[in-house]
Amino acid sequence: xxxxxEDWWGEESIGWRGPWRDHYLPEAERKKTKAVIxxxxxxxxxxxxxxxxxxxxxxxxxxxxxxxxxxHHTVLHGxxxxxxxxxxxxxxxxxxPHDGPDFVDCLVHLDDAPLESGCLCVVPGSHTDGPLEHIxxxxxxxxxxxxxxxxxxxxxxPVPAKAGDVIFFSxxxxxxxxxxxxxxxxxxxxxxxxxxxxxxIGMDAKEPNNKNHCQRLKEAA
Length: 221
Ligand SMILES: O=C(O)CCC(=O)C(=O)O
Hints:
Layout: H1 2-9, H2 21-24, E1 35-39, H3 47-52, H4 55-65, E2 70-79, E3 87-90, E4 103-109, E5 120-122, E6 157-158, E7 166-170, E8 175-177, E9 186-194, H5 211-220
Antiparallel strand pairs: 1-2, 2-9, 3-8, 4-7, 4-9, 5-6, 5-8
Bound molecules: 2-oxoglutaric acid.
2-oxoglutaric acid is lined by residues 77, 87, 92, 118, 120, 175, 177, 188, 190.
């Protein structure tokens, strides 16, 4: 996987696009951040198919949402050393809205993620408020209006992690992460799961229920 990210894939972007950058980065850095985003890492390495079905991981999910668990998506986010991209405050809900609350995202850490690496920061309890209105559009990835939701205005709790740690959070949990200021990669893979009864909003029951999301990931890469 390291080979794919650092040598073969090699194509970096600045990370998520959008006007949110004006609120999170000094002007000189807004277009200079770096990220590698790979949808479906199991297409490149069979190890990731095993991780998706890992008994320990699935057992934790069952404890959270019940015995039946359906996989939804897998995506790798690599924050490059020095100026690895930040992510604005958001919920994951607008990326893949479903008709229920039992959707859990797991952040599997491939590297240590200390505070300085731009570790995940969350607003505890925020999932209980349900989906919030985000700024959306072709020009941006969904983000919460910075006038109300910004790390300077809302207290968030950092969740530093070690390589191998997994953070579980609801797709309605408000979260963000800062720039990676270390000289090491900060890679993590987000895997989303939900109860099989839940359906994506606005999608025909006959369509695969992660189709729109896979398409969007392709467009974002
Ligand atoms: O990995 C991070 O720092 C945050 C990623 C994120 O916001 C997400 O996966 O929704």
